[in-house]
């Protein structure tokens, strides 16, 4: 029972196999518990060895100063060439303290939902943002530094099963959560089932249908408020809410658009068919002929003040109107054609033959004269004179023959151009027909249905 060594031990506790009692410092390693700084808690180590000299027993009693670090005892054994884990020896003081019962217990630095050892009956505190592998369905809203409290229930018969309460330590109603959790299976492959417990003083969203066999009291919001008001029989806009008859939002005969070729039960597509007026007396009030109008390709128009009867048809048409069309006048000015040299052109050759003039030119000449003669002969020597005129014979009539001969002429056309005056003018415009076969507006095709009643 005496101190085995006269000095403190600060080595590896795995190496202490000699029987005795040792004073352990914070420098020692492989101790059973660390303080908040990660240092081995001061303590006293007791060592016993079996007679075979192989198996060793160690017991460690803490000598810390804090409420959770003093007077706690841990044991382990060395056998089969290895040390077992340190196991705490619970006392009436340490057990409630370790479980968080009757005293403060330090919060965990981290908690992995798949691997943490949830000791039955323990109370656990850990920061929300220090939890990992949070189970599906455990919706905490905002992940922050709020503390999460866990109260672990007793173990199930399976040995690995645990049931526990998990809740958030906060004063905020918006972030408060309370869950019932059950885990089962080996660490690392656990099955975790989470159910959120509703809080009575906050709004709830119910994913599943709720049945309240005992009834509900108080004012309800939404459609439930309407139902509450209708608890007392009344008539609204001519409709009786007293349970005496079915409520008809649309009277039989009203055409209703329907986005399917299959009408709902109790309705018919309006396509000109007859119906049994005895079977559907309310529909017969709207259509006394027993024929449902054919609404295929038709739209509904309010009946004018005059000129139309109810259910009469009006073919498509547009309001009479005129169009005006014109083309603006444009003076195209004077345009010049392109220049082209036609060269020298030769007329065709033609022989005009020999041409003769008519016979003409025949004429005479009149000549005047004076005569001096010797009368009686030369012998008498008596001179005599006389005057007169004479005409020559006709002569000079003639003609000319001219040989024209074959010849041609050449004409020089020369390079030249023409100008054309187009002038200001107008055009006539023809407006062609266009459009659909009938007047329409942008539309989506629906079937018109009518309720059979």
From TrEMBL:
Residues 323-332 have a biased composition (Polar residues). Residues 307-332 are annotated as: Disordered. It holds the Pfam family Collar. Residues 253-300 form the Phage tail collar domain. It comes from the Bacteria. This is Tail fiber protein. It comes from Escherichia coli. The lineage of its organism: Bacteria, Pseudomonadati, Pseudomonadota, Gammaproteobacteria, Enterobacterales.
